[in-house]
Amino acid sequence: MKEIQLEYVLPGNIEKRSFEIIREELRERGIWLPADQDPVTRRVIHTTADFDYAETMTYSPDALDTAYRVLRSGGDIVTDTNMTRSGINKKFLRTLGGEVHCFMAEPDVAAEAKERGVTRATVSMERASKLTKPLIVAVGNAPTALVSLHEIMENTGWRPELIIGVPVGFVNVVPAKELILRSGVPCIINRGRKGGSNVAAAICNALLYQIRDGKVPERK
Amino acid sequence: MKEIQLEYVLPGNIEKRSFEIIREELRERGIWLPADQDPVTRRVIHTTADFDYAETMTYSPDALDTAYRVLRSGGDIVTDTNMTRSGINKKFLRTLGGEVHCFMAEPDVAAEAKERGVTRATVSMERASKLTKPLIVAVGNAPTALVSLHEIMENTGWRPELIIGVPVGFVNVVPAKELILRSGVPCIINRGRKGGSNVAAAICNALLYQIRDGKVPERK
């Protein structure tokens, strides 16, 4: 039986080593990510060990500048699952003045959705649209959240500053993402079926860590 | 420009429709999952939209029987991330008498790890080994947690009832999973680099839902 070999890497260096491996393997695949997208897409690959994301992650031209501006100015993040909220580095976000909301799991949201015969995602997105701070909406689970968001934007003219649209699944996930891509709102989308709560959190954290690590020059 | 088509599926039927699509596409790929593993592996594919899992999910022969016995008897689940804890259906688990622990995020675990120069995963697994209830350890993130678990089992003879080992990543993830596969402890492992906190939660929920939905015959 083949012996099992563990590589000795200092705990603090595992993430660094992982990101190097991802960089090397992207190179072997002949994939060069645009410099500004690279830290975000690579963190998604780090979170999933899935190189497909290198080909499907899609950024509107203004998405990253918008993300950094919103986060630096103390903007909030709205998620569609507690898992994404749980995965976001809320401690660092708080130092910037921001916080994470997840309306989906609040009991009165479930009650209102039931009463009106709509999904909890719809009610959640309506609540998000009532917030007055600059907002990033990060959807990692429910395509319905993106569809509702799109409807609210069409009907009211309200828009979040940025949409992170990476729900996962088999029913309406692909068209829901296309709706957002065509909306004109700055967005980071993973085209296709893949995504997830972990992917949404990874994207938020990649943006936060770029700021934390001084990789994003301050705007004059 | 091609029109965007949304499929109309009643909110309550989206999951059912998704599972049907997965079944159809597995068939098209010529993959038949063993009947007992099918609901678990299909839920993982539902969570990731990644059919690779159909080929890499690995169950020890006693894994599923053990899982159902432990959960039914009020056993607890220990996770290595708050994201997995957050994703598990704790409400249904409670009706069986179980709860979810995640020691990793407790402040004194971080302090102890720092003082002893070990990882938080190591300290967390030590704490898990002190629990007296039947236990499922579900690791979706840190390969170190599996390595530490293996060491504790070797050194003390203590063992959890079941190990769900689906960490994701590029450093020591593959060998850490092989260590567990060879340990003789009932286990559900995703071989290779892929996995994640969401995958660990999906596996726990698949097991819980089989019980909830009366799909697992009671043992006489």
Give an overview of the whole structure.
Two copies of one chain form a homodimer. With 220 residues, chain A is of the alpha/beta class. Chain A has one domain: 3-Layer(aba) Sandwich (Rossmann fold). Chain A contains eleven helices and six strands. In chain A, strands 1-6-5-4-2-3 form a six-stranded mixed β-sheet, with helices on both faces. In chain A, α1 crosses α2, α2 packs across α11 and α7 packs across α8. The longest helix of chain A has 16 residues. The model of chain A has no long low-confidence stretch (mean pLDDT 95). Chains A and B meet through α1, α2, α5, α10 and α11 of A and α1, α2, α5, α10 and α11 of B.
As laid out across the biggest beta sheet of chain A, the strand order is 1-6-5-4-2-3
Largest sheet of chain A: 6 strands, mixed
Query: What is the number of helical segments of chain A per DSSP (H or I, 4+ residues)?
Result: 11
Alpha-beta content class of chain A: alpha/beta
Protein name (chains A, B): Precorrin-8X methylmutase
Keywords (chains A, B): Cobalamin biosynthesis, Isomerase
Organism (chains A, B): Mogibacterium kristiansenii
Pfam families (chains A, B): CbiC
Topology:
The structure is a homodimer of 220-residue chains.
Chain A: H1 14-28, H2 38-48, H3 53-56, E1 57-59, H4 63-72, E2 76-79, H5 82-87, H6 90-96, E3 100-101, H7 107-116, H8 120-128, E4 135-139, H9 143-156, E5 162-165, H10 173-181, E6 187-190, H11 197-212
Parallel strand pairs in A: 2-3, 2-4, 4-5, 5-6
Antiparallel strand pairs in A: 1-6
